[in-house]
Inverse folding.
């Protein structure tokens, strides 16, 4: 055991918590190392003076102040409970309201919320059944008056993750026919070549 | 045999408000001592100790006697409050050694000393020396890094076991032991001129 290792055992030795093996090693080192003997004596002394520090007592108004604060907390807590209880009772037992009215309101809220959720989730809409269609303007200044060029239709595939606000990543499309100067082009952004451009 | 603190908590939860007052009376002194030594501020310690009891009061419904000891739970709340307080104070060193030690401890003793000059232990020089030593120790504790200070105070000033300290500070047993040893070694060096 060297001095650094011995130092690590100071507390355990002081508290008589070393196992047999460690105890023998530590005591053997201490017996032959004067520096460690000196350091351990100082260590022991400093721990003792720290442990003998006087206890700090709370002041006389500690308890009354705390009890006051606790009473305040109780009042607040009781007040909140009372408000909730009163409100709930009033909702349930309003004198001019028929008894089924409260349940009916709750049921209506649940139906509206559930319907909205189902609609958003796509159960009540069929938007996913349409393929992706992107309208591409083809009218160019140099080709005014000529019939529009029909671009090749690429592999029909849904384009996902295009619109982050659209569930399922499918571009919502309109079923209305496009205007005359537009042609419909089905595009796959994965397989269409950009020919070196962006 | 059920722990008295647990029994008092159970009684309080069952509607006996006096039981909570009794809990406070049992723990107010060690708690104030712990916080004052930790944050080195007596007045601040009383505020934080009260805040600790209020949090215990508010969370009493969630306390489960079998899961943790009341004492470690209380010190856990208090040490978190201390950490927040020290963080809020930032790097401003607000050493209040005098106010910490003066409270009801040494100053009262000094008053008594003047009335009892025959006893060596109560002679003014001895008392002043002792006060100087206590101030030095408190300063040395306050200078320890926080992660060493809390376990040291809990061990050497509050007398908690290593297991209780590990539970309070959510440390592994080995970490707790090595931090306490390290803290004591640091204190030994800081108190070189006194011991």
């Amino acid at each position: 055991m060297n001095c650094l290792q011995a130092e690590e055992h100071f507390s355990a030795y002081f508290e008589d918590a070393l196992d047999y093996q460690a105890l023998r090693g530590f005591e053997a080192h201490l017996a032959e190392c004067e520096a460690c003997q000196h350091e351990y004596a100082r260590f022991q002394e400093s721990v003792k003076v720290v442990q003998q520090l006087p206890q700090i007592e709370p002041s006389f108004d500690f308890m009354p102040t705390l009890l006051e604060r606790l009473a305040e907390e109780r009042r607040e807590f009781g007040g909140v409970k009372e408000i909730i209880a009163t409100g709930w009772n009033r909702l349930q037992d309003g004198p001019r309201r028929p008894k089924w009215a409260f349940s009916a309101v709750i049921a209506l809220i649940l139906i509206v919320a559930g319907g909205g959720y189902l609609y958003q989730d796509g159960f009540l809409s069929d938007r996913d059944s349409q393929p992706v269609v992107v309208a591409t303007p083809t009218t160019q200044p140099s080709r005014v008056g000529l019939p529009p060029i029909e671009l090749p239709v690429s592999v029909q595939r849904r384009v996902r993750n295009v619109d982050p606000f659209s569930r399922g990543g499918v571009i919502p499309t309109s079923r209305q026919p496009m205007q005359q100067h537009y042609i419909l082009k089905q595009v796959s952004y994965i397989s269409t070549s950009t020919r070196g451009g962006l | 045999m059920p722990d008295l603190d647990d029994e008092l908590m159970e009684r309080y939860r069952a509607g006996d408000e006096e039981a909570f007052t009794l809990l406070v009376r049992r723990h107010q002194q060690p708690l104030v001592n712990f916080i004052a030594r930790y944050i080195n501020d007596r007045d601040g310690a009383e505020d934080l100790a009260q805040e600790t009891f209020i949090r215990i009061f508010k969370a009493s419904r969630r306390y489960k006697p079998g899961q943790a000891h009341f004492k470690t739970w209380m010190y856990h709340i208090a040490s978190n409050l201390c950490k927040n307080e020290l963080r809020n104070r930032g790097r401003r060193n607000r050493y209040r050694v005098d106010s910490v030690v003066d409270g009801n401890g040494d100053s009262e003793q000094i008053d008594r000393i003047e009335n009892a000059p025959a006893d060596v232990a109560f002679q003014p020089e001895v008392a002043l020396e002792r006060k100087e030593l206590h101030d030095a120790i408190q300063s040395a504790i306050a200078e320890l890094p926080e992660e060493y200070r809390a376990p040291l105070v809990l061990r050497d000033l509050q007398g908690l076991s290593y297991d209780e300290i590990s539970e309070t500070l959510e440390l592994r047993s080995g970490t707790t032991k090595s931090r306490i040893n390290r803290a004591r070694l640091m204190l030994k060096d800081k108190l070189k001129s006194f011991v």
